Request: fold
Amino acid sequence: MNTQTKSNKTLTPEYLEWHNKFTGLPIVLTDKISVRRNYELKKENIKIKTENAELKQNLDELKKELESKKNRKFQEKCILITQILNEEPVVEYRPSFMEGLELDAFFQSNRIALEVQGAQHRLHHTSWYKDVKKL
Reply:
């Protein structure tokens, strides 16, 4: 028996064993087996795609939940800082030099700004600092 394919790749023993089972079978029977196997593979593929879609949906929900937990954690820290500084912050402060970008909180008398790394930072291009020449 030839164990080499035309591309000179060695055939696995499992394949050769499987092939030997079907060499003597009538074409009608091997066609039925192929159709049945093809149907099973399509069914399994649909199942995997469905599971994948569900997992993606669950992942998106978990990301949203994590973002809200981060925001809640930031809010708690901001409240604590407000109590320590004994000053109400300006929320969503937009200084002119930031060209429309906003700070999450700004304490005017102490000149302290708070910024959280949230979803808003994924929307802006931040490579400007790479263009600054080193001194």
